[in-house]
Amino acid sequence: MENRTVYMDNSATTPVRKEVVEEMLPYLTENFGNPSSIYELGKISKHAVENARKRVADAIGAEENEIYFTSGGTESDNWTVKGVAFANKNRGKHIITSSIEHHAVLHACAWLEGQGFEVTYLPVDRYGMVSPEELKNAIRDDTILISIMLANNEIGTIQPVEEIGKISRENSIYFHTDAVQAIGHVPIDVKKMNVDLLSLSGHKFGGPKGCGALYIRKGTKIEAFLHGGAQERKRRAGTENVPSIVGLGKAIGLATGEMEETNKPLLEMRERLIKGLLQIPKTHLNGHPTERLANNVNVTFEYIEGESLLLLLNAKGIFASTGSACNSTSLEPSHVLTACGVPHEIVHGSLRLSLGRMNTLEDVDRVLEVLPEIVQKLRNMSPLTPQEYRAL
Ligand SMILES: *Cc1c(COP(=O)(O)O)cnc(C)c1O
Question: How much is the pTM?
Answer without folding.
Answer: 0.97
